[in-house]
Amino acid sequence: MNGFGPTALPAASFVFATAQYESGDWDSAPLVPANVIDAIARYTTISVAPQGIIVPLASEEVFRSPLLYLTGHLPVRFTPKESEVMLEYVKRGGLLFIDDHNHDIDGPFHRSIVEEIRRIFGALVQLPNTHELFRSFFKFENGPPATSHELNGWGDNLVHEHLMAILRNGRIGVLYSNKDYSSEWSYHPENKKFLSVDNTKFAVNIVVYALTR
Amino acid sequence: MAAGSGVVTGRSTELVNSVRQRMQLQSWVRAVAFGVAAGALAWLIASLVVSMFWRNAGNATSVIAIAVAIAAAGGVAQFLRLRDGSITRARAALWLEERFPALQFALVTLDEIDAQQSRTISDEARQRLVSAVGAPDIATPLNRSSLNQLRLPVVLAVLLGAIAGPLEARLSRAASDRASGETRTSPKNNTNNANGEALTNWRVRVIPPAYSALETTNLNDVGQVAALVGSLVEISGDDGDAPTAVLRSTVDSIASISLTVTHTGKGWATRLTMPASPADARFALGATNRQLLLEPRADSIPVVHLESPTRDSVYREAKGTVTLGASAHDDLGLQSVNYELIVTSGEGERFTAKTTIVGAQRLNGDHEYKWQAAFSLDTMKLVPGDIIHMRAVARDRHPDAAHELGASETRTFRVARASEYDSVAVDPAPPPEVQKSLMSQRMLLILTEKLVARLKTVSHADLVAESGKLAGDQARLRKAIGNLVFQRLDGEDSGEHGDAADRGVAIEQGKLVITASGAAAPMTDGDEGDSPIVGINKPLLEAFNAMWDAASALEIAEPKNAVPHMKIALAAIERARSAERIYLRGKPPVVIVDLAKVRLIGKDTGMVNSRVAREALSPKEAEREARLLSAALLLTRDVNAGRDSLALLRLESITDAPRLAAALNDALEVVRRGGDVTAALIRARRLIGGAAKSDSLTSWRGL
């Protein structure tokens, strides 16, 4: 881990973890972790590791991360072991953040991942835009922020008004977005200075929610 | 005589005693009856008062009312007992004398004499008294007296008891309901009044949805019904008024739904649809309630298993037929099954997906079904990089189009990209030489076979010319293959002109062979198998040699003999092309965030100090500044005068402003040299105010 792995950090450091699964293209947004880490460091005092890690979804390494990021373009089919680990991960209180990199309402990733989520966890429910996720750090009065891909009419040419979720005991266990934050946040953090408004603030809310709720 | 008098005395005593006992009993019963009536009245009044002034009394209402009733009953009974007093013999005798005037007080006298055991009366007189008493019929007056005495209290007791009992029970129940905050529901066995009869013997009829093909079920007087969601549940009852009915979910907090209860010829009936979540239907009739618990049974989605293909795969070429096999099971019966193929194309940000249905079959409610289908990869126009996702889908007979489908696990077949194993860091390269060689060799083979087919029609000169041309092409291709082999060995492509033996390959009679030194080289190390380099080069050597033979045959105009060698060369090139290769997979870029920089806690803190205005000069300094400016202006008109002014100012500054004096000295030196004095004067002016100039930009902060 080049000295930046979780073992080289204080035990309390938050390490951003990206899920690596057998099918599909799990590594389609390699710059998102760095950008999210940059946002956490920029706005919060959370002790955060400077580099994210990649954890195989079928391994118990997953349980070391309170937040797990999963994305892709292609149809997804989780192996029995991956399904088992994901279910156990959410049962133990982890937050699995899944983002559709296609931002299509009926895209191949969306169709397959929704089926897989329903098979493993049950049906997704619509997360109300008044949910505390949208107030956990920054306030998003209108719910999840729209991405430039939605506003520019890419993909399904829709602005998805809501996120979906699997709730367990009143807490979000699985957060599903087909707003394509994976594309929105996939740039080198050094280029954040060119943005008039930092579009990764919502990532801070997700991390803070995962760590505090 | 003594004996006869005793008999007479005993008769009168017996008569008086019987009357006395009867009157005593009558007095007790009357007191008790009045007590009961008073108790019932007190019970009723106490219940009303408590329920009016203590709305949340609950069960305390009954307790208080009973206590008050017992106290009132005991008090009234005791009062009457004390008022009436005890029934004495004289009182009983007088009561009889009153009812029988003919006795002429003979009984009273005789009883008094017997009580006093007086001997003053003669036997004759006693006998007359006994004769006067005789044997009166006391039963009739006693019964009449009892009727008169007891009629009123008994009627009151019964009447008030009959009124107070149910009324108090209702008041207590209302108080209990108020205390518990919900409607009281009594079990079936407690419905013992007339209204409750209508709720004790209802009938329940469950009519499943038509699509389920299940039979109608009749149930008698049940408290719970389990049925398929959407089933029609009919509840009907006889012998009573129609109750009110409300359907309420036991899971979510949706509002209650009132059910319409209709009167029938014999009683009442209502119906409802089995909801998706557990619920209870509550019926109320007068003071009696009863509930029917509704337990919905969901229509489970079909369970589907994809049995063939058994695993994912990667195709180099999208050719051939794929056979699909699957099995499905459903609790209520399957309506249709099919296979769903999703073909995804594209890469990066652009993907397209196309869905195709194959092997669709319509079923007739089978609970278990297995089916197969096949599709041809050739007809799907797949290109490298496409992925086929296959799964089996089954629909049950649920009529709702949004009802969930049963789907199997998914298998994927992928058509390999030619460059998919290349590292992303490698720039695109031209097609490998072996690829071009394959195409060229195939083309040469085709041309040669065409020439062979025309052997009988073509002239000898043309045959020699065309065959010679093919021989030249074959020789050039052979040389390209040779270069490829040597390039892989040492990076140079001049194999035929270099010392091939040094590289483990020797040219013998125009053909390449692996030499003994080459056997020890990486080309042939190991007995278990060849290294990747050898795995590729061996077929190429074989192709090279076959091409040599082919070219030789073509050169002497024997294309027919060249064809077998050319086919061997083509097959060898194909083997070389499909040999095992080892590629590196690309790695995503690694970005390590500089946390100190992001958090502005490094050298560059991002914080700047606020600037403060320079302090005003003291009068002395202001005067010196004015003199310096005057001297500077004077220098432009009269150098000597200006120099003198600067010299004078320097002298005055030596003691209290040595740095200013030094700066003025520098300026005077520049004036003496005849140079530009501007910079020196600026420095001197800054020193007047005590400000120091630094070449470092950061030092300017805070000025």
Summarize the structure in short:
Chain A is an alpha/beta fold. In chain A, about 25% of the residues lie in helices and about 15% in strands. Chain A has six helices and seven strands, in the order βαββαβαβαββαα.
Written description of the protein model:
The complex is a heterodimer of chains A (213) and B (703). The radius of gyration of chain A is 16 Å and the shape is globular. In chain A, helix 1 crosses helix 6. With 213 residues, chain A is of the alpha/beta class. Chain A contains six helices and seven strands. The two termini of chain A are 29 Å apart. The radius of gyration of chain B is 64 Å and the shape is flat. Chain B has helices spanning 2-53, 60-84, 89-99, 106-116, 123-133, 139-180, 197-200, 433-453, 460-490, 516-520, 532-555, 559-577, 595-598, 619-637, 639-653, 658-673, 678-688, and strands at residues 203-207, 217-220, 224-228, 232-238, 244-249, 257-259, 262-263, 267-273, 279-285, 288-297, 303-308, 313-315, 321-347, 350-376, 387-396, 406-407, 411-415, 505-508, 511-514.
